[in-house]
Amino acid sequence: MHRQLRGFLQSHKIKLGEKKLRSLLKKHGLLKPHRRKIAKTTFSGHAFRIYKNLVKDVKVTESEQVWLSDITYVRSNHGFSYLSLITDVLQTGLIQEK
After folding, report:
1. To 10 degrees, what angle do helices 2-11 and 18-27 make?
2. pLDDT in tens, 41-84
């Protein structure tokens, strides 16, 4: 906004820096609240129990033997929402059926 007003300010011999303009707009309630651009991710440094990988050495031979789950964040007009996914490990293509 300061860049757009620069010509007007100079033609009227008004000295107003970017920081001062921002503080004036804030003081009069004319600034839009800062919107968070990234999702707040999981805090991994917690004290809760962390479970071992129970299927590390399992040979997957058929569907519905091992399931995977994950969450991700989806941005909407109302902020971020969680999306939870659960799928059969064979459907992911990560493991080939034997």
Report:
1. 100
2. 777 788 888 888 888 888 888 889 999 888 888 888 888 888 99
Structural domain total, the chain: 2
Please state, as a whole number, how many other Cβ atoms lie within 10 Å of the Cβ of residue 26: 10
By C-alpha distance, which of 37, 38, 42 is closest to 71? 42
Task: Please indicate, yes or no, whether residues 29 and 54 belong to a single structural domain of this protein.
Answer: no
First-to-last CA distance in the chain? Answer: 62
Tell me which residue has tokens 């917690």: 46
pLDDT in tens, 8-30: 999 999 999 999 998 999 899 89
Domain residue limits at 8: 1-34
Q: In this structure, what token pair is assigned to residue 46?
A: 């917690």
Q: Looking at the structure, tell me whether residues 55 and 26 fall in a common domain.
A: no
**Cα separation, 92 vs 67, whole angstroms:** 10
Q: Which amino acid is at 35?
A: R
Whether the model clears a pTM of 0.70, i.e. scores above it, the answer is no
